[in-house]
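Quick one:
INPUT:
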C-alpha cells in the first residue's frame, strides 16, 4: 500500500511587508495573469490555494475586473481555494472584534466568488489566541492549519485544539512550515527522494499522510508540478502523489484520539515566534487601539442605539472596517515592515479613527446642546456670532467685534509714535486674551 503524499500548491502573499502594497500588487497581478490560464489549460495542475485570504483576489480584480468570471468558475470547480479570511491577520495586535469582522468579510467575499475554503488557514501568524477554535466553530469551520506557536507538547502533525469555552477544531501542524514543499524538483526521481527524506525526518511525528505545501512567500506557481507528479506515480509504488486542496486532504486524515491542547499557541519551541513585534513601533499599536475603540466602542454602538435603522451609516462604517481589517495583516499591524509601509498603515488607522470619531460626535452633539444653556452675553453678539467653545467657563468666550486698541493702532499710522504703538499693540493683545473675562480683571488690564 503506497504512502499518500498530498501536494498543495500555494503562494503566501504578504500584502505589504519589505515592499509597499502597490509594489507587491504588481507581482500579484503577474502571478494571477499566468496562473488562471494555466489552471484552465492543465487539468493535472489540479488546484491552487490562494493563501486563505480574499484580499489577494480583491486586489487582483481591482486591476483585472474582467477576470472575475474565470475566478468564479475555478472556485466553483474547486480548482482554487478562496478565503475564509479577508486577510491573514496578527492575532495579538488587533482586537477580537477586528478578527471576527475579518472572518465575516472573508466569508462574504469568498461566497460571492463561488465558494469558501472551510479551512482555518493560519500559516504565518506570530502565535495564536486561545479563542481561535471558538471563532472558527462560530463560522462552522472544523479545521485549523497552523505552524508558529505550536508547543513541544504537541508531538505529532495533528492535534485537537480546544478553546476556553470548550469549542475545538482539528489542527494540522505544518511540520517544517507552510513552505515545506517549496521548490519542487522537475524530475520524478528527485520528487520521490524528497518525499522519502521528509517522511524520514518526521518519523513517529507523522500522523496520517504526508503533506507538502508547495510554495512560500510571494512564490510563483511551478507549472511542471502536474507532469512530475504523474511521472513519479508511473515509476514506483512506494508513494502516491496527488495535487490537491487542503480541504480534501484534511477530510481524509485521522481525527480520533488526537493529543489535546487547550489555550494559546504561543511557544517558540518549533518556530520563531517574533515576539518583538509586541513592543516595536508602539506608535502604530497606539493608533490601532485608538481606531478600533473609536469604531467598536463609540461610533457603532451610539449609531445603533440612537438613530433609526434606515439612517444607520453602514457604508461609512464599512469603509472604516475595511481599513482596520486590511491593517490587521500580520506584517502591517505588527509594524515589522519597511517605513514606507508603516506610513500607509498609519494613514489607514487615522482614517478609520476619523470616521469613528465623526460618527460618535454626530450622535453626541444633540445631548451636548441640551446640556449647555446659552449665556446672556451670547445673545448680545451683534452679528450673531457663537462662542467658539460652549461651556460654563467664563474664560472661554471670544467676541467678534473690532477691538478698540486695534482701531487706534490702525489710525495712528507710521511716524514718531512707533514706540508707543508697539506698546498699544502689546496692551491690545493682552486685552484680546482677556476679553470676556470678569469685569474686574478687564479693568485691571486697562490700568
Ligand atoms: Zn507572512
Amino acid at each position: 500500500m503506497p504512502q499518500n503524499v498530498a501536494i498543495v500548491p500555494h503562494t503566501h502573499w504578504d500584502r505589504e511587508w519589505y515592499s509597499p502594497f502597490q509594489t507587491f500588487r504588481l507581482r500579484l497581478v503577474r502571478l494571477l495573469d499566468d496562473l488562471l490560464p494555466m489552471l484552465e489549460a492543465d487539468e493535472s495542475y489540479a488546484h491552487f490555494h490562494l493563501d486563505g485570504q480574499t484580499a489577494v483576489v480583491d486586489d487582483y480584480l481591482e486591476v483585472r475586473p474582467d477576470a472575475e468570471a474565470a475566478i468564479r468558475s475555478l472556485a466553483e470547480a474547486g480548482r482554487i481555494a478562496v478565503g475564509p479570511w479577508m486577510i491573514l491577520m496578527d492575532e495579538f495586535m488587533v482586537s477580537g472584534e477586528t478578527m471576527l469582522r475579518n472572518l465575516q468579510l472573508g466569508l462574504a467575499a469568498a461566497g460571492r466568488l463561488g465558494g469558501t475554503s472551510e479551512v482555518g488557514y493560519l500559516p504565518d501568524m506570530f502565535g495564536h489566541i486561545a479563542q481561535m477554535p471558538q471563532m472558527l466553530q462560530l463560522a462552522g469551520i472544523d479545521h485549523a492549519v497552523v505552524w508558529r506557536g505550536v508547543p513541544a507538547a504537541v508531538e505529532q502533525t495533528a492535534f485537537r485544539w480546544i478553546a476556553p469555552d470548550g469549542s475545538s477544531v482539528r489542527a494540522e501542524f505544518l511540520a517544517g512550515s507552510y513552505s515545506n514543499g517549496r521548490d519542487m524538483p522537475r524530475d520524478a526521481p528527485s520528487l520521490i527522494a524528497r518525499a522519502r527524506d521528509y517522511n524520514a525526518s518526521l518519523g513517529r511525528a507523522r500522523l496520517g499522510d504526508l503533506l507538502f505545501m508547495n510554495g512560500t512567500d510571494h512564490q510563483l506557481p511551478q507549472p511542471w508540478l502536474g507532469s512530475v507528479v504523474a511521472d513519479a506515480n508511473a515509476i514506483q509504488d512506494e508513494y502516491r502523489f496527488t495535487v490537491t486542496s487542503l480541504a480534501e486532504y484534511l477530510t481524509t486524515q485521522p481525527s480520533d484520539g488526537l493529543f489535546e491542547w487547550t489555550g494559546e499557541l504561543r511557544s517558540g519551541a518549533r518556530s520563531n515566534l517574533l515576539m518583538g513585534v509586541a513592543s516595536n513601533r508602539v506608535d502604530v499599536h497606539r493608533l490601532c487601539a485608538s481606531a478600533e475603540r473609536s469604531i467598536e466602542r463609540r461610533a457603532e454602538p451610539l449609531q445603533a442605539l440612537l438613530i433609526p435603522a434606515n439612517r444607520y451609516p453602514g457604508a461609512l462604517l464599512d469603509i472604516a472596517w475595511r481599513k482596520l481589517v486590511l491593517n490587521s495583516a500580520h506584517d502591517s499591524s505588527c509594524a515589522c515592515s519597511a517605513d514606507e509601509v508603516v506610513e500607509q498603515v498609519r494613514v489607514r488607522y487615522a482614517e478609520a479613527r476619523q470616521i469613528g470619531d465623526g460618527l460618535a460626535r454626530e450622535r453626541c452633539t444633540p445631548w451636548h446642546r441640551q446640556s449647555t444653556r446659552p449665556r446672556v452675553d451670547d445673545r448680545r453678539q451683534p452679528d450673531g456670532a457663537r462662542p467658539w467653545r460652549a461651556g460654563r467657563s467664563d474664560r472661554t468666550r471670544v467676541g467678534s467685534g473690532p477691538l478698540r486698541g486695534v482701531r487706534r493702532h490702525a489710525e495712528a499710522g507710521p511716524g514718531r509714535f512707533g514706540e508707543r504703538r508697539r506698546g498699544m499693540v502689546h496692551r491690545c493683545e493682552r486685552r484680546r486674551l482677556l476679553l470676556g473675562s470678569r469685569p474686574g480683571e478687564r479693568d485691571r488690564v486697562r490700568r
